[in-house]
Amino acid sequence: MKSQTLLCFDYGKKRIGTAVGQTITATATTLEIIKVINAKPDWKKIQSLIDEWKPEKLIVGHPFTLEGERQDMTDAAERFSRQLEGRFNLPVELVEEQLSSYEARRELKSTRNLDAVAARLILETWLNENIVQNHRQTMANKQD
To answer: Of 14, 30, 91, 141, whose CB is crowded by the most CB atoms within 10 A?
Structure first.
């Protein structure tokens, strides 16, 4: 398997959490929180992260309610993902996420760095669904 670097974004109307991950290790690490000012992401800061990490793919959390319903943030995250793809010409995948901020708060026991931890949790979900599960299936098929 070719190693890929992934950048993940937990989009919010005031802050965007970021995380980076590697497919070869199926691990993710928190990065930083990017401010959203006047409803506009800090595109220069996002560009600097892309320049630094050189990701092959971008991952964006796709929020839904606990009942699986769309909400305002669902549309906002979809718009942000389209902007990322258009600006940086990189593939973007949406990862359905529910409770990432809640899980991050439980893990941190505070709200400091919450958005970046939420981004890491979203990226870990993508890695688990796309790398770990596929590896387990491949190993099971080899045993049959």
So the answer is: 30
